[in-house]
Amino acid sequence: MENPLTPEEKKRLQIHTPHERVPAYLITKIIKKMKQENLILEPKPLLTRSWSGLAASLLLGIGLFAAGYFTGKPDGSRDSMAMPAPKASKFILLVHNDDLPAQDPMQQVREYRAWLEDIQAKRIAGGEHLHSSGWILSGKNRENRVEARPEFMGRQELGGYFTFEADNADEALAIAKTCPHLNYQGTLELREVYR
Amino acid sequence: MNFIDQALVTTYLRTRDETAFRLLYSRHAQALWNMAMKLAAGNNSQAEEMVQDTWLRTIIGLSSFEWKSSLRTWMIKILINRWREMNRKKSEVPLEESHMQSHAHTIKINDPQPLMALLPEGYRTVLLLHDLEGYKHEEIARMLDIAPGTSKSQLHQARRAFRNLIQKENI
């Protein structure tokens, strides 16, 4: 096998600056074209919208809200009346990107959200969803420490994480086993956080 | 986790709503643009045409997309197909014009930027997907409709061809 490209060779291969932004006018052009092709419909006044249209708009709202289920409630956002025992351990549940596509994605989103809310009713819990693109930093090669990755979507890649408190590992494991990600044959990784 | 894309696609298909499309666009526009610019060897107008067509084809094909890969992987595949079509059209240009293009390439060999443009289509694609964009052979295989083993051997040959190019340039 031919050796991987050196950083210098990669530079030679690059055509443009890696961080060059997509032209802002492009979306306007695309949307104009889509409207010409009837792929985007002009919005109707609210009162003349069909019930299915309204429901769909609502679903979009719910979906966007739910899509932010990871980000909406950071650790410690619960009210102090429901604080857990001070000696609880903190756990992180890493969510891998290997779940099967859901038949009804909205239902999947609702399941994740309900699950997190259920934990939050008893414990400090939160979570965040990660962007699919990012960077890999490595200490191995001094000349090429940072590598841009367009997409972290492979089986072992991280899609997000939840954090929650539990009295011990058994309880944390019991909580993790109820995560809806498992219903979609996804992989979870449970780790205790050093305190 | 594909569910955000799935939620947006479901909403778009139900409503044909501009907002849903804009959200979908914002998730993938930059990655598509980066890829298009590299495939088009920095040719802005070609990249623009490729990206625009990719979005239109994606949207038209969305209802039959089966989510066997991520939406991004599927879109990159569409983009690469579009680029190949454009290349085929280019190769059909009259002989004289084609000669001028190849002459232009010879001149550009001293310019550090367009080395990518001198590589054959197959080599260029695998080299950039693997070595620059960081895709794995399994993902590349899905995008190019080839076996992962073919992707590996193409990469091997592409790296060799690229190094030969650099050597020639240094002579």
What does this protein structure show overall?
The complex is a heterodimer of chains A (195) and B (171). Chain A is α+β, with helices and mostly antiparallel strands and 195 residues long. Helices cover 31% and strands 18% of the residues of chain A. Chain A has a domain at 69-192: Dimeric alpha+beta barrel (Alpha-Beta Plaits), CATH 3.30.70. Chain A has helices at residues 7-13, 25-36, 51-67, 105-120, 169-177, and strands spanning 89-96, 125-129, 134-137, 146-149, 158-166, 188-192. In chain A, helix 3 packs across helix 4 (105-120). Chain A starts with 6 loop residues before the first helix and ends with a strand. The model of chain A is unreliable at 45-85 (pLDDT under 50). Chain B starts with a helix and ends with a helix. Chain B has helices at 3-15, 18-39, 44-61, 71-91, 95-108, 115-118, 121-132, 137-144, 148-170. Chain B folds into 2 domains: 1-92, RNA polymerase sigma factor, region 2, helix turn helix motif (Rna Polymerase Sigma Factor, Chain: A); 95-171, Arc Repressor Mutant, subunit A, CATH 1.10.10. Chains A and B meet through helix 1, helix 2, helix 3, helix 4 and strand 4 of A and helix 1, helix 2, helix 3, helix 7 and helix 9 of B.
Question: What's the SSE blueprint?
Answer:
The complex is a heterodimer of chains A (195) and B (171).
Chain A lengths: L6 H7 L11 H12 L14 H17 L21 E8 L8 H16 L4 E5 L4 E4 L8 E4 L8 E9 L2 H9 L10 E5 L3
Antiparallel strand pairs in A: 1-5, 1-6, 2-5, 3-4
Helix pairs in contact in A: 3-4
Chain B lengths: L2 H13 L2 H22 L4 H18 L9 H21 L3 H14 L6 H4 L2 H12 L4 H8 L3 H23 L1
